[in-house]
Amino acid sequence: MECTEMFITLPHKTSICLTEECRNVGYNIFSSLNSSNNPCTNFYEFTCGNWKINNQVPFSDSEPFWNQWIRNEFIMREQIDMIITKYQSKNSNFVKINKLYKSCLNRDDNESSYLKEARILINKLGGWKKLSNAATTGKKQQYSWLLKVAEVTRLFGVHPLIKMHVAIDLQDTSKYILKFDPGELSLPLWILENPLRYLEHINAYHNWIYKTMSLILPNVEEKSLQIQALYLIQFEIEIARLNKIKQKFVRLPLKKMYKRMPTNDWNKIVKILFRNTKADIHPTTVVQIGKLEYFEKLEDALKYTESQIIHNYIIWTVLRDLARDITKETRHLNFLINSSIFKTKVDISTTRECVDLVSSHFDSILLPVYVTEYSLQKDIEDVKNISEQIRKQFIKNLEQNSWLHFSTKLEAVEKLKNMKFSFGYYPEGLNDSTLERYYGELNITENYFLNVIKLKSFRIQKMLEKLNQQVDDIAVPERAVQTNAYYNVLQNSVIIPLGLMEPPFYYRNASRAINFGALGSLIGHEMSHSLDWNGRRFDSNNQMTNWWNQKDYLNYEFHEECFRKFYNVSDSDWRISANENIADFVGVFTSYQAYQESKESNEDVIPFLENYTNEQLFFIGYSQVWCETIEDQNFMYNDEHLPVNIRVESVLQNLNWFQTNFNCMKNHIPKCTIW
């Protein structure tokens, strides 16, 4: 840590940094601690107890919980908002940014016009179909549903029934390929798979559909829309059941796809999908099908579904996607379904929604300005250094590993050496002429609703035009404002978003122990995913291949079983969370070792934290990134992560270093290691 003024010399020849910046760091950490808790028995409450008291869920927040990640997103969003509103530039793209932002802020002034445009849009797509008696008799009219799916995909980027998109080729990760995957659902799969168990959410979904359609179609009887909404929900439940099919992807030329699904006019489908793009596609173009059996069973299911139901479902997916962009009332109906499922208490603010809209579409312009405006370049270089130290330690651990086969070990080391780090944006930015060409065709006006549609179509066009192109850069996240670090398995890269360049993840000019404990542990966590059950499908050259032998797999399972017993969770919870739990441990374990190897002998002491050693601050830094307040204690994440307190306590109770540094009585539970 660098401090250039105001030092107090301590007896053991270290110094206290008394700059305002150092004092703020110390107070921020110290004020979150609750020393009435014993760190040996409840370290999470020791480090986060006062933070939870002082950080209740803000009434303005749309989430049912509040944590450091969401807090940092709020900070970053406010900073980007300042750039959008105050950055003066005659650059044509900044003119578009400002025009889009203003149209979003003023959207409620023109909602009657947007409602009319939504009705026109539905009519152009074929209108809302009245159900015939076929819905109950089982008779079905001929309907080219895949043509309609291709049309709404190209126009709006929505993916009902089948997701047609261009993405990195799993077999050759240096290129892009056209992929066909199961379509995107309106509700989480866990609800649609168990509709009777989650009847409250199903009822809320029913209300969302028919009440939204009542606004769009005022001349249709409400009772008729209620009945149609029931049919759509039942249809989507059936589609969701097909999603459970587990099958490896297949690759085949488009002309063979024609034979597999001969009832569809594939030439016309491809023509619609790639309309007005520069992509080169022909019958011999190789495509990737995610779940072939899903498509075959989908075709069978649709044979017995009335065409009006299929058509209306496709129309609904378009309106569902535009629900927040039409009127205050359609936006409110969308909020009600989110409130039912995710327990949100207030809707997203207009400013937040508008900043997210602008930054997600113009991130290549805004993020380089953001880095410059907030002087993040030096911080980024420091985090790169931390990342390299952790990589070096991870490689050292692999080289000393006793159970991996020699050839597997060499390949794992090579994979770590080839791993790239990205900060979620293009560091050099793109030059003005390149950006002019990229955004040149995009015409932004004062009409917010049409702007949104143009942006959706523009994004899908740019995605489709990547077909058969080389993958040059590490893919950046679609959301510019985010704090979620992740491992990109297809590009062997760790993405460290700019939102993590703030406390408590990263402290500028703080003790390196804190930064290694906080952000360093997250980086090590993501690096660990390169060798977990998913990451090791790809070798050091990003090629999908089986480079582990059977004994390696068995040895890994043996070590994983130790963790499963240590966590003492159900088999089902372990199957979901195993990769994350092991990555938590590896991240802290490796980052602590890296800190010990790279720490300076005369690191300055931070005010308010004089009584803690650097090693203790490492663990405090790690734990405080997980501080969280939840209003509803019955709230479930329904994802692959265990509750944050369990994540923290489980990792630290498995580390003798933690127990030694806090003078805890050693527990006699066998410790688990992996690499």
From TrEMBL:
Keyword set includes Hydrolase: yes
Main location group: membrane
Pfam families on file: Peptidase_M13, Peptidase_M13_N
Compartments in which it is found: Cell membrane
Gene3D superfamilies: Collagenase (Catalytic Domain), Neutral endopeptidase , domain2
Entry GO CC: plasma membrane
Cofactor dependency: Zn(2+)
UniProt name for this protein: Neprilysin-like
